[in-house]
Amino acid sequence: MAGHGERPVLLIDGTAQPLSLSIAHSDRGVLVAIGDAATTSVGVDLVARGAISHQLAWTFTAAERQWISAAHDDAGAAEKLWARKEALYKACQRGEGFQPATIEAVPGSPPRFSNLDLAAELHCVQTWQIDGHIAALVIATARPSVAEHNLRPHARAA
Fold it and tell me: What domain range is 93 assigned to?
C-alpha cells in the first residue's frame, strides 16, 4: 500500500527539505513534529482514549500485555502503548512496513524495535494526555538511511 514505510517529505518549490517530519491525526486533532534530518529522526502519534480494543491484543508483546494488565487503574494503558509503538516506528524505521508486534514500548524499560535495543539512539520518548487523546513523541538519532530517504520525493498513488 502506498505510503506505508515512507516518511512524509516537505517540498518547497519542488525541492525536498532536509527535515525529519512526522504527522499523526485523529477525528479531532493533529500532532506534527519536525526535526533536522541530519541529526534527528522524529515520530509522533495521537490516539483517542478508548480507541484500542481487545481485538488488537495480538499487536502487543507479552511484556506489553503484562504491563497493560498491571495498569488496571490506568484506563488509557493500551492507548499509551499503541501511541509509543507508532511513534517509535515513525522515528526508527528504515522503510519497512509497520509491524507492531516487532516493537516493544513498555514504560520504564528500554524500547525495542525488531529486536534492536534502541537505548543509544533515543533522545526522548514521551507520552502525555491532551483533549481526550494520548500523544507520543520520540526523538532519535538520525540513521543515515532515514536521512537519505527523507531527501527523496515520493510518488504517491492517487
Answer: 11-150
141: domain CATH number is 3.90.470.20
> What are the tens digits of pLDDT across the range 80-129?
999 999 999 999 888 888 899 999 999 888 888 886 767 678 899 999 99
Count of domains for the chain: 1
> How far apart are alpha carbons 155 and 134 in whole angstroms?
31
Backbone phi and psi for residue 77, each to the nearest 5 degrees, phi listed first? -60, -45
113 contacts 100 by C-beta, under 8 angstroms = no
Cell of 68: 497493560
Cell of 147: 536521512
Which secondary-structure segment (H or E) carries 155? none
In one letter, which amino acid is 20? S
What is 96-122 written as a DSSP string? PPP-GGGEE--TTS--EETTEE-TTTE
Instruction: Please state the φ and ψ torsions of residue 88, each to the nearest 5 degrees.
Output: -60, -45
* Residue 142 pLDDT class (50, 70, 90 cuts): confident
> Whole-angstrom Cα distance, residue 117 to residue 99?
16
Residue 9: strand, helix, or coil? coil
